[in-house]
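We read letters as residues; the fold follows as tokens. A sample entry reads:
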Amino acid sequence: MPPAKKSPIIEIHTPPYWEEACKHLAKKDRVMKRLIPQFGDACLESHGDAFTTLARSIVGQQISVKAAQSVWDRFAKLPRKMTPANVLKLKVDDMRAAGLSARKVEYLVDLALHFDSGTVHVDAWEHMSDEMIIAELVAIRGIGRWTAEMFLIFHLMRPNVLPLDDVGLITGISRSYFSGDPVSRSDAREVAVAWAPYCSVATWYIWRSLDPLPVVAY
């Protein structure tokens, strides 16, 4: 019998600032002081590489999580390895047959072009501001500010991102801070003043308050 294939080792990264952030938030914010202990040692986790993470986000747009996983599984089998150069070699008909719309095919090709040509400066991101990275990402077709902010939080694990376009964040702030009353972006910013410089961490806990299962990015 041939030897069983080994499962690929998936590196899991967690933010080095998490413990410090939790102490800060619990000290500065009454809601965070109540929320944080409810979730034990759980924290933000990042998996995978930048290109794959963004490609998955494009595939998953405007469809259910289950449908997105199904399409991704079929699409991911097309290239020998999920790299920008390999995606650019794929045939449009094969990508469409995997369940991708014509528009998503265009978006994935544009994403691959930006990565393959070096238009996005992945190696320099460590030294770039959040807004500079967002500007690079939103220049790619199919990636808006919300997707870029999710990428900053879940992949790059930037500590101080406040995604004001996120429905879950606004809903959670409404429930936890305003007894369910409607919340404006201005209200949300005011609440988040106490969260800085760890808005990403506070946002993660607000999401958890709505859905106890942690959100991860691949």
Notes: The chain has a mean pLDDT of 91. The domain at 12-44+161-210 is CATH 1.10.1670.40 (Endonuclease Iii, domain 2). The chain has two domains: 12-44+161-210, 47-154. The beta strands are 12-13, 46-47.
